[in-house]
What does this fold into?
Amino acid sequence: MGPLISAAHRERVASYVGDDAPVAIRGRAPDGPGFWFAPAVLCPVDPDDRAAREEIFGPVACVIPFDGEAEAVALANDTTYGLSGSIWTRDGARALRVARAIDTGVLSINSNTSVRVSTPFGGVKRSGYGRELGPRALEAYSEVKSIYYATGAA
It folds into this structure.
């Protein structure tokens, strides 16, 4: 994780990890130049907490406890965002069932990244616009036009 873009953004990220935040794990940030923020894992986080509802764009992860698959899917879908997600399980059937049920543009199973240059990337809901990457990526920047040219005598 590199430094954040500005001091103002570092302060915005820090506002999610205040004195009353349920910090379960806190990492360290390098010394020296740059707008570094020490990674943090918040746990447990209520689904209605600000950190769970907003995009933080910093090294802060929220852990929201759940009981069962149905509640996990409901919690995952209870957001206005849907860029990317991750499912961790040893049960292949459950992984595919939950992957189909979660509203995200891309999803990884037993991996923390789903971005590949060969596959489309983009979100749903308020996350992103269209798709980038993959063989069909240029379609978002193109408009098809058909032209028929008769080459015979008029």
The chain has two domains: 1-65, 66-142. Residues 92-101 form the longest helix (10 residues). The mean pLDDT is 86.
